[in-house]
Design a protein that fits this description.
By secondary structure, the chain is of the alpha+beta class. About 40% of the residues are buried. The protein has helices at about 125-135, 140-145, 200-205, 225-250, 255-260, 265-285, 330-340, 350-360, 360-365, 370-375; strands at about 10-15, 15-20, 25-30, 40, 55-60, 60-65, 80-85, 90-95, 105-110, 115-120, 150-160, 160-165, 220-225, 290, 305, 310-315. The termini are far apart. The protein folds into two domains: about 10-135 and about 150-165, Immunoglobulin-like; about 220-375, Collagenase (Catalytic Domain) (3-Layer(aba) Sandwich), CATH 3.40.390.10. The chain has ten helices and 16 strands. Strands 7-4-10-11-1-3-8 form a seven-stranded mixed sheet. Helix 5 packs across helix 8 (about 350-360). Belongs to the peptidase M35 family. InterPro entries: Fungal_M35_metalloproteases, Lys_MEP, MetalloPept_cat_dom_sf. GO terms for molecular function: metal ion binding; metalloendopeptidase activity. Its cofactor is Zn(2+).
Length: about 375
């Protein structure tokens, strides 16, 4: 009888060689091989970064201990889940040297400690999470499919690990050749990633590029307001995502970039790039809720939210803006998403003030929400 394919597959990509005391960037790709859309709990996986000892790393057969912080948790929140459609993947690049020590040269092997992950087959709202994680036991995959039980599935993971080599600091740090198998080629000292068709992830790894967006917008929820207002907010959500995606795709050191973020410096450019990526991924992975309620707004406010909060309050003045273009509803949605997903601040408002900020205090411009709104054309 043929072996059943696992529903979740984790692939690790590594460059051939890394140097001691330098970053060891690996790309982790989590793929949904099932026929169902899944909401995967990020806890204990590389998708959440270094919050637990989630990796199995060994050198010459001896396990490397975890040196990072351990996070103690109780019940997850909706933000702890990531949506993965059938046949699609989520990726994250991590410098594993931030959590593990690689001071000794040698050949290392890396995989994932977890043998299973928890997924929901329904949207992870607070009532669903409360029912799933505080009442009864975890439901089996079959009952979750039929909508019974707690709708929690514990799915086995198929892990495709990788080898890599850590060399003395004086040696060239990266072998950029990407072999096609998980075993080193004869005569080659460089380690290899596993076999995979995701060349974008490999390219991002070896060139230090930001990983590409998935291109899948998460639908939003809207509370309050009239039917016309709700339709306008829904359109602004869609158009805000388009603005953010196009801004990330077109980001380069040109006159437009310097107008809103100042003189080019590699570190600042990378920061702007990372924040745009966070905004786009927020649109793609977070269940945002727009609440049309003037009572939650300060006088004169257009919209408001908090860092990490998927709820965005929409004020009456929001609807006086045009749907698209400068100072539009779409631009304001992007502005609020930059607060929620990229931790931006309100340093300055308005085009003239933001341009002056870029010219005199470009580091502040890279943290300013309006600067991202105007750069994206909103």
């Amino acid at each position: 009888m043929p072996k059943r394919e696992r529903d979740i597959e984790v692939t690790v990509y590594a460059s051939g060689e890394y140097s001691v005391d330098r970053p060891i960037n690996l790309v982790f790709e989590v793929s949904n091989r099932s026929k169902n859309p899944l909401y995967l709990l990020k806890w204990g996986t590389p998708l959440e970064g270094f919050k637990t000892d989630c990796l199995e790393i060994s050198r010459n057969g001896k396990r490397i201990p975890f040196g990072g912080k351990q996070t103690v948790r109780s019940v997850p929140s909706p933000m702890d889940f990531v949506f993965i459609p059938p046949g699609r993947s989520r990726t994250r690049k991590i410098d594993i040297a931030r959590g593990y020590s690689f001071l000794q040269k040698g050949r290392y092997r890396i995989g994932l400690r977890k043998k299973s992950v928890e997924c929901l087959l329904v949207k992870p709202t607070l009532p669903v999470i409360a029912r799933a994680y505080t009442v009864g036991t975890t439901a089996k995959h079959s009952s979750a499919k039929s909508g019974k039980g707690n709708c929690v599935s514990r799915l086995s993971i198929n892990v495709k690990g990788a080898h890599f080599l850590v060399v003395p600091l004086t040696k060239a740090p990266v072998n950029k050749r990407i072999p096609k198998t998980s075993q080193p080629e004869k005569g080659k000292t460089g380690a290899t990633p596993v076999k995979s068709t995701n060349r974008q992830a490999v390219a991002a790894l070896v060139s230090e590029q930001v990983l590409p967006a998935t291109g899948i917008l998460r639908p939003c929820s809207i509370q309050g307001g009239t039917a016309t207002q709700q339709a306008a907010v829904n359109d602004a959500h869609d158009n805000g995502y388009i603005l953010a995606s196009q801004a990330l795709k077109g980001l380069q050191n040109d006159a437009r970039y310097q107008l809103w973020f100042g003189v080019y410096l590699p570190a600042r450019f990378n920061k702007v790039q990372a924040k745009l990526q966070a905004i786009v991924r927020g649109f793609e992975e977070t269940d945002f809720v727009y609440i049309i309620d003037d009572n939650a707004c300060d006088p004169g406010a257009i919209a408001c939210t908090n860092p990490g909060d998927p709820r965005i309050n929409i004020c009456t003045t929001f609807f006086s803006r045009p749907p698209a273009g400068t100072n539009s509803m779409a631009g304001r949605v992007l502005h609020e998403h930059s607060h929620s997903s990229a931790d931006t601040l309100d340093v300055r408002y308005g085009q003239a003030a933001c341009q002056a900020l870029a010219a005199t205090r470009p580091d502040d411009a890279a943290n300013n929400a309006d600067s991202y709104e105007f750069y994206a054309g909103g």
